[in-house]
Write a structure and sequence with these properties.
The complex is a heterodimer. The radius of gyration of chain A is 24 Å and the shape is globular. Chain A has 3 domains: 9-227, no CATH class; 370-556, no CATH class; 558-609, no CATH class. Chain A is built from 15 helices and 22 strands. Chain A is α+β, with helices and mostly antiparallel strands. Chain A starts with 8 loop residues before the first helix and ends with a helix. The relative contact order of chain A is 0.11. In chain A, helix 1 (9-33) runs antiparallel to helix 6 and helix 6 crosses helix 7. Chain B is mostly beta strands. Chain B has one domain (2-80). Chain B has one helix at residues 47-50; strands at residues 2-3, 8-11, 19-22, 28-31, 41-45, 60-66, 73-80, 92-93. In chain B, a hairpin with a 7-residue loop joins strand 2 (8-11) and strand 3. Classes of the chains: A alpha+beta, B mainly beta. Chains A and B meet through strand 8, strand 9, helix 10 and helix 15 of A and strand 1, strand 6, strand 7 and strand 8 of B. Strand 8 (239-248) of chain A pairs antiparallel with strand 8 of chain B, so a sheet runs across the interface.
Chain lengths: 612, 94
């Protein structure tokens, strides 16, 4: 760690904010050129600026979990291309290999060196989730995969642009291996445009402030984050903290895998040891070391570094270990198709648990502790022939709830804590891209983990096929039989994810009568509950698909919750009257709280807890 | 007293050794060296019986930890019937 003395404070602030502004402009370019709703609506992408050795200096304000792998990507490019000798001005590399730094093959990165006065001085990067990258199933990751080779095109670092010339052969090779090549092709070009903006603006910055000052500030923001992070660690108690998270279903069987973490906080450093985690699975839930690292950062950045810029400086104070061959540091050919919402998510969830226990033990920082935040994704892929007669797959990214914190409820429909600009696709957009008619999209009652402070509610939605007779739904999530969003200090976990298909329904009659169902219970039919991972399943004309994400974990004993807050939750349809009574011990009478009845009921529940 | 969590603290008032104490009622749960929940009352529950938002399953349970003095719910631990928590894994060691 060095003190940055190459620039005066004013210049430092100007240049460091320019770096932020460049990432903002890069992100705008990506959103403006990309045609994929995963980018334009769900914000599932990020951009970054790095030093020549790959150190992450400034990260865009989007999905931190995809940006956390950038140092690994650049390190692998440097290794593959002779430590910089073959890296030329005007090059751009495309890369998505999970064993070369990517999180999973769907997260396609384009990484561009920035040269100034004929010297490699920096990198710009953009990573975004694709709609398809080939493989055995439309949308790419398949629960039936047993090897990474079945999950799509695996690209080591290749020059997509060489000395300023777009490599059409590489581009055509990629598009020949993917479905929805039009969208993927546009997305790839959007990445080139994004890096072109980044390269040009960074070059302008270098020209205006000079190489020494610009690079010194880039290093300076890293050093400052490291210094502030280490200072914060010194304020936290010395400790060993344990945590366990789980993934149910590996795509083949409903086995429950455990992810075991022992975190040690010693002086001004933090170590994460995932020894004890189960061996790699035969299905697509594993992650490589890329997911391991970015999963840890997905907890550390928001919970400890909420006021510290997220960059390499923080990563320098952290050590991470997991046995090779384990679920969170898998070896090829283990499949990793849904590393982004399985292995990596579980790494992050366990890290959130451990970090929050540490924060909760601090007299100074206890307010930052909270329950796990949207621990399980449950995004369905709607696939088949769309309403335009084209073969398509559409990943509908909805939202779970935030973990409750030590002083407030979790946000309802929060999306991921690691996304600083969380966003979910508009239903109208989803209906534009997918052959589906949504019936409702609402908070799922009681899905937020109960507690003194309640976890955020998850969204539940349902749709029928529309404009096509060839529509299937597939999905990979976790948290269907064990909670993905654990609570803390007596708070309950968020509700399980739940997906089902109701068949032989009366939905046509309901719609013909001019009614719109407000819940799945209002529709008659035969329910088929789906497992956490399910392969593409066809939708008949009278079938209704239902989906719920996981709510956030609760904080503290529910009997400590303010009864008026419980009443408000019941009025807002977030908490059921039954849960208000049985979990919160609140007696409601004619739209208000019966205080004496509540006191009596809570006493009864406490006696029952102790068997009195 | 040093804080452990929302409801637990470390005290040495009664035994001269570091004990776990409930911050709501002052009940001493036991020596810190044995683990912060070693003196808690525990009860296993079927998740679906707590709330239908936890789908029916025979694979998992919730283990609930209570303060023996005031019945405050200290922890809700999801457990897998066939894969218990590794015994050597600490909750938190301070």
């Amino acid at each position: 760690m060095r003190e940055n003395k190459a620039t005066d404070p004013f210049t430092y602030e100007i240049v460091s904010h320019k770096l932020w502004q460049i990432t903002e402009e890069m992100a705008l370019a990506m959103k403006n050129v990309s045609g994929s709703p995963i980018v334009t609506e769900a914000n599932d992408f990020n951009v970054a600026i790095s030093l020549s050795d790959g150190q992450l200096s400034t990260m865009g304000a989007h999905n931190a979990l995809v940006a956390g792998v950038i140092p690994l990507l650049i390190r692998n490019i440097l290794e593959d291309y002779g430590s910089g000798d073959e890296i030329c001005k005007g090059d751009m590399f495309v890369i998505n290999d999970p064993h070369k730094g990517a999180l999973h093959q769907l997260d396609l990165a384009v990484v561009a060196p920035v040269h100034y006065q004929n010297e490699l001085v920096a990198w710009t990067s953009v990573i975004a989730h694709e709609v398809d990258i080939g493989g055995m199933q439309h949308g790419s990751p398949s629960p039936k995969a047993t090897e990474i080779f079945q999950e799509g095109l695996r690209i080591p670092a290749l020059k997509l642009v060489e000395k300023g010339k777009f490599q059409w052969d590489i581009f055509r090779m990629i598009l020949s291996n993917v479905r929805q090549a039009g969208l993927v092709g546009l997305d790839i070009k959007a990445r080139v445009a994004t890096n072109s903006v980044g390269q040009a603006r960074l070059y302008d910055l270098l020209s205006r402030f000079g190489r020494k000052v610009t690079l010194s500030v880039m290093q300076g923001v890293i050093d400052r984050s490291e210094k502030k992070f280490r200072e914060r660690l010194l304020e936290l108690p010395e400790s060993h903290v344990g945590a366990i998270d789980y993934i149910d279903h590996d795509g083949h069987t409903n086995k429950i895998y455990k992810i075991v973490l022992k975190m040690t906080k010693e002086s001004d450093s933090l170590s994460f040891d995932y020894s004890g985690t189960d061996d790699q699975a035969p299905g697509h839930i594993n992650c490589t070391i890329s997911g391991l690292i970015t999963g840890v950062m997905g907890a550390v950045f928001p919970y400890i570094c909420y006021d510290i810029p997220w960059n390499q400086g923080v990563m320098k104070a952290i050590s991470i270990h997991a046995p090779e061959g384990s679920l969170v540091n898998c070896k090829p050919p283990a499949p990793t198709g849904w590393a982004s919402i399985a292995g990596m998510f579980a790494v992050r969830n366990a890290a959130i648990q451990a970090v929050c226990k540490l924060l909760g033990s601090s007299r100074e920082h206890w307010r930052q502790a909270g329950g796990v935040w949207e621990g399980g994704k449950a995004a369905p892929v709607i696939m088949g022939i769309n309403q335009y007669g084209e073969r398509s797959a559409y990943l509908y990214q909805s939202s779970g709830g935030a973990g409750a914190m030590a002083y407030k409820d979790g946000y309802d429909c929060s999306f991921s804590i690691s996304s600083t600009k969380p966003s979910i696709p508009n239903i109208e957009t989803a209906e534009t891209f997918a052959p589906a008619l949504f019936l409702f999209n609402r908070f799922r009652k009681d899905s937020g983990g109960s507690g003194k402070y309640r976890g955020g509610a998850a969204l539940e939605f349902a749709f029928v096929r529309y404009g096509s007779t060839d529509v299937s739904v597939g999905g990979s999530g976790h948290g269907a039989v064990i909670p993905a969003s654990q609570g803390i200090f007596g708070g309950y976990p968020g509700g399980f994810i739940l997906r089902s298909i109701k068949r032989q329904t009366n939905i046509d009659a309901i719609l013909v009568a001019g009614k719109i169902p407000q819940s799945i219970e209002e529709i008659d039919g035969n329910v088929e509950v789906l497992s956490a991972k399910f392969p593409p399943t066809s939708l008949d004309s009278d079938a209704v698909f239902y989906n719920s994400y996981s709510g956030g974990g609760g904080y503290g004993d529910p009997l400590d919750r303010d009864p008026q807050s419980v009443l408000q939750d019941v009025i807002n349809d977030i908490v059921s009257p039954e849960a208000a009574r049985s979990i919160y011990g609140v007696v409601l009478r004619r739209g208000s709280v019966d205080l004496s009845g509540t006191e009596t009921l809570r006493k009864t529940i406490r006696n029952d807890r102790l068997g009195v | 007293m040093n804080r452990i969590s929302e409801y637990l603290e470390i005290t040495d008032r009664k035994t001269g050794k570091r004990d776990v104490c409930c911050s709501k009622c002052g009940y001493i749960l036991g020596p810190l060296s044995k683990g912060i929940y070693s003196g808690a009352v525990t009860r296993n529950m079927i998740p679906n019986e707590i709330s239908p938002v936890y789908t029916k399953t025979d694979q998992t349970l919730f283990r609930l930890y209570y303060c023996p003095g005031c019945a405050t719910q200290l922890k809700v631990e999801p457990i897998v019937k066939e894969a218990p928590r590794p015994p050597q894994l600490p909750e938190i060691e301070l």
